[in-house]
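Curious: explain these tokens?
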Amino acid sequence: MASTRIKLCGFTRVEDIALAVAAGVDAIGLNFARGPRKISAEQGAVLARAIPPMVQAVALFVDAGEDEIRRVFALTRCTAVQLHGDEPPALAERLRRDMPVIKAARIADAADLARLRGYPADAFLLDAWVPGAHGGTGHAWDHGLLAGVDLGAPLILAGGLNPTTVAAAIARVQPFAVDAASGVESAPGLKDGALIRAFVAAVHSA
């Protein structure tokens, strides 16, 4: 079985990116949408320069227009886009011509998974459903909903993952990748080096 990839999201400081890269993280997420981890395109350009070529830089948006998404990509070294809102399939199709598209979805029941079938994405990031929330929620959810489910693209598991919970989640779901933000932070947007290293070690042990 291939090793589970590791994506950490919501970086706001160059030094935290350096910690994540040193720990062996595969992808770095930058939030251009909303919340305490939101950064500007100009900040993203600075942070993305700290991400080495073999680590993927992922730009996160919520219901942004195509022009805005492409503007950010023109200013940064991001190499994949993560869509967290109600972006129409046609937008995802156009973006996929130039970059990998990760479609994020908040899962409360089997119907939420069913709605993803056929959406044009290179991977699906599955998170917990929390009323009024967009982006990462930091909440765990029922991974049993994924039993026997094939969405036609690799799964990235998110929601309530931290050094204590991630190994069991991988054992149950066997996802292509896992994603965490608050689970490796000392405060929103401020990463904790010890937690990052523990998270990576837990993934590798699984």
